Amino acid sequence: MSEILLQIEGLTKAYPGVVANADVSLTIRKGEVHALLGENGAGKSTLVKMIYGLVKPDSGQMVLRGAPYAPAQPRAARAAGVAMVFQHFSLFDALDVAENIALGMETPPPMRSLAQQIRQVSETYGLPLDPYRTVGELSAGERQRVEIIRCLLQSPQLLIMDEPTSVLTPQEVEILFETLRKLTAEGVAILYISHKLEEIRALCDAATILRQGRNVGTCVPAQTQARDMAEMMVGSTLHTPARGPRTMGDVLLALNNLSRPSASAFGTALKNITLSVQAGEVLGIGGVAGNGQDELLAVLSGELLTPADAVQFMGQPIGQATPQARRRLGLLCAPEERLGHAAAPDMSLVENALLTGVQRKGLASRGFLKWGAARRFAEDIIARFDVRTPGPDVAARALSGGNLQKFVIGREVMQAPKVLVVNQPTWGVDAAAAAAIRQALLDLAAGGAAVLVISQDLDELMEISDRFAALNEGRLSPAKPTTGLSVDEIGLMMGGAHGMEVAHV
Amino acid sequence: MDLSAINPTLLLASLMVAATPLLLAAIGELVVERAGVLNLGVEGMMITGAICGFAIAVNTGSPILGLVAAALGGAVLSLLFAALTQYALANQVASGLALTLFGLGLSALIGQGYQGIKPPSFPKADIPLLSDIPFLGGVLFRHDFVVYLAIALTAVVWWVLKYSRIGLVLRAVGENHDAAHALGYKVVRIRVAAICFGGACAGLGGAYISLIRVPQWTEGMTAGIGWIALALVVFASWKPWRAMLGAYLFGGITVLQLNLQAAGVAIPVEYLAMSPYLITIIVLVIMSADKSRAPAALGRSFHASQ
User: Fold this and answer.
1) Cα–Cα 20 to 30 A to A139, which of A438, B39, B113, B276?
2) Given an 8 Å threshold on Cβ–Cβ distance, is A54 in contact with B295?
3) A89: closest CA among A182, A191, A161?
4) For strand A59-64 and strand A316-317, is the pairing parallel, antiparallel, or unpaired?
5) How large is the ipTM?
C-alpha cells in the first residue's frame, strides 16, 4: 500500500432543511484512482466542494500529507496541490484558451510563455489544443481538455474529476483513461466521480459509496459487480426495464435528406439527415452533445421549420407545420432542458400539464380553460409516474431534476402519442427513476407508437432501442440494429476520437 | 446662409469639449457592463456629479476639488445601486431607473440656491510649443486637462481590459459569474468596484458639463447625455476605442449642427437637432455588425449559493 495522501474524517455539512454530508470519512492514497459513487443528491458534489475549498464543512477534519488541511477558498486548495475538473465546465466562452487557463492559475506567466507551456503539456499528454482559439467554438471534448490542462499546469497531487466522461465518445474516453493512468504512474491521486459503473470498474482502484449524505461502504471496483455497486448506491434492489414482444408496423415518421442551419450562433447545422421510425420501434440516436441533437429535436417538434417534404408524418408532409399542428396529428416531443424548455419553471404542474396537453386532452373549449380537467390530468401523471411532489400546485422549479423529468416525460406519454421524440430522457435522473422512464418508453412502443430517443448515454440506448444511429457534426449515420453492435463500431459512428492521440510520456 | 461664418478650428476644438462628458460616462459604464452589471442610472449619477462638483467648486473656489467631489458624489450614489443589486439582489433594470430618478431629484434639492452663480473658471492646459502649431495647436492642444484625462482613461481602460490580470478577471466575471466564483474570484467585490468606477466616471462627466462646458447650474442640465452614453456602450460593442469614436462623432455632429443652425441652413431645425443621434447610431450599428456580442452575464444577478 502506498502512502496516504488525503485523509478525511467525520466531515459534516448541513444546509437549511437538508444534511448534504453526515460524518463522511475516506482515505485517498498516492497514485490511486479513487471513485466516489452515489445517486443524484447523495452529497458527492458537496464533498468535493469541501475538499476544493468552495464550501466550508460544519465539522470534521481533513489531513493532507500528514498536515491538517482546511482550505478557506479554492486558491488555498490549489496552492496545496488540489485541482478540480468541473462537471459543468467552468469555462468562459468569449475568452480564448490561454486566457481561460490563466484565470485558473495563481501566478500565471506572461501570455506568450503560457501559450508555449500549454502546447508543451498538451503534446505530452496527447491533448492537442490551440491556445489562441476562442473557447465558445470548441467541442465538448476539447473544452474538457482545456480544463484538464489548466489543472495539469499546476502540477497537482490530487486531481478531482466530476463526471468527466459524460460528454466524450468511447475513443475519447479511452484516451482520457490513458492520460489518467500516466498521471497516476507519476504519483498523482485522482478522485473520480461518475455514474458509469463499468468505467469505474475499468479505471478505479478503490471506491467510496455515498447515500443520502452518508458513507455506506467501500469496495474494490474491479472485484465488484456493477449491479452490486448500483444497489449499494440505491439501497434497494434494482428493477431492469423489460422489453416485451413488439410488432413493427408502418413507417410513422421519416426525414428525407433534411438540411437546416442552426438558429443560434454556436449551434450545429443539420446536414442531409435521412431517417425513418416504424410503429412499435424505438430508434436510438447517440452522439456527443453539441453535434446537432437540439437542432434535430427542434426540426421534429416544429420549432425550426423546414421544406414541407423533408419531414413526413404517416406520409403527410409536415415540414411547415407548427408545433401545435404536429401535436394535433400525434407527434409529441420532450426536449432536453427541463427548466425553460420542457417546462415553464415558475408555473405550477397543472399549468405545465395544460401547456402541452391542451389539445390532445381537450383541456379547453371555446377559448376557456377547463381547470378541473387539467388538474385531473396533472394528478394522473403524478400518480402513474410516481412524481414526488406535495401536490399538483407547486411550481415546476420546486421539483428535483429527476422528479420533474418523470413529470415531463409522463405528460407526453399519457397523451397517447403516435410518435414520441425525447432528448436525454434520463439526464441527471437517478437509477430507479431512469429505469421507470425507460420502461414507460418501451411500453409506449409495445403499444404501437414509434419512439425516437436522442441520448448521450450509450448504455441506455443499447438497453431500449431496436436500431441505433449517431449524430456527428450535424450528420446522421445510417441506423444499424443494436443487437450485436460493438463499442468500437458505435465509437466510429460517433465520429471516432476527434483528432486525439494517445499520450506519449 | 453663410457657411463661411463657421470657423473649422473652433468647430473641431469645441467638438472635443462636447464629446468629453459623453466619453467619460460611456467609458465608466463600459467597465461596469464588462463586469456583467447593467446600470441604467448613468444619467442620475452624472447630474449628481454635476451638482456636487459645482457646489464644492463654488464653496472652496477650487475647480479641481470640485472635480474630485463630483467623482466621489457619483461613486457614492452608485454604491446605493451596488447595495441594491449586488447584496439585496434587486432587479438591475428597475434599480438603475430608480437611481436616475433619485439622482435627478437629489441634484435638484442640493442645487437650490446655486442657480445663476458662476463657478470659478477652469485653467486651460495650454501645452507649450504644441499649442503654437498652426491649426492643429488650436484644435488639439489648447484644452483643459479633463479632455486629455478622458482620452488617457480610454487608453488605460483598453489596456487594462486587454492585457492585465485584473482586466481578465473582470471580463471573466462579466462572462460567467458562476465559473468565476468556482475558480475562487470574488464576484460581488469585483462588481461593486466596477460599479463605483462607473459612478465616479459618470460624476466626472457631469461636473465637466456644469464646471467647464456650460459653466453654470440648471436643473436637469445633463439633458439625456447619460442615456446616450448607455446606448453608445452597446453600439460600440463594449470596446473602449469605439466608444471614444462614437463620443467624438456625436460631439462633432452636435457642434456642427449648432453651427449650421446659426448659419441659417435651409434645413428644418428639428432635423438638425436629431442628426447627432441618428448619425452616431447608424455609424455604430454598421460597425457593430461584426461578431462581437454582449458580456454573457450582463444584467444577471449573482448569488454564491446557486
Assistant:
1) A438
2) no
3) A161
4) unpaired
5) 0.79
